[in-house]
């Protein structure tokens, strides 16, 4: 049973850590609700304008899990146009 993860490196329009945490919390909570994946901020917690988020899912079918995480990336691009995706990767753990 494959475990598939997606790492997103984001450039955020925040000037304070409070603004950053608000943006990150919104993205993480909405993605969890909409796609039923595990989500967390993994790195750069104290860097005001950047964030690294990780989303993980488990499925019987690798292609389904990869497609689901591609949908997560597309959702972030569509729903948060103020957030720039600098880089992302999807891989089997």
Report Rg.
13 Å
Major sheet: size, sense and barrel closure? 4 strands, antiparallel
Classification by helices and strands: alpha+beta
State the CATH topology.
Alpha-Beta Plaits
Number of strands: 4
Helix content: 25-40%
The H/E string reads EHEEHE
- Average pLDDT works out at 93
The fourth-level CATH homologous superfamily is: TT1725-like
**What is the number of independent domains?**
1
Top-tier CATH class: Alpha Beta
InterPro entries: DUF503 (IPR007546), TT1725-like_sf (IPR036746)
Organism: Ardenticatena maritima
Protein name: DUF503 domain-containing protein
Pfam families: DUF503
Tell me what you see in this structure:
By secondary structure, the chain is of the alpha+beta class. It has one domain (3-92): 2-Layer Sandwich (Alpha-Beta Plaits), CATH 3.30.70. Helices cover 40% and strands 35% of the residues. It has helices at 17-35, 62-79, and strands at 3-11, 38-43, 50-58, 84-92. Strands 2-3-1-4 form a 4-stranded antiparallel sheet, with helices on one face. It is elongated. The protein starts with a strand and ends with a strand. The mean pLDDT is 93. This is DUF503 domain-containing protein. Pfam families: DUF503. It comes from Ardenticatena maritima. InterPro entries: DUF503 (IPR007546), TT1725-like_sf (IPR036746).
Features of the shown structure:
93 residues, Alpha-Beta Plaits, 2 helices, 35% strand, elongated
SSE arrangement:
Layout: E1 3-11, H1 17-35, E2 38-43, E3 50-58, H2 62-79, E4 84-92
Antiparallel strand pairs: 1-3, 1-4, 2-3
Protein name: DUF503 domain-containing protein
Pfam family, one: DUF503
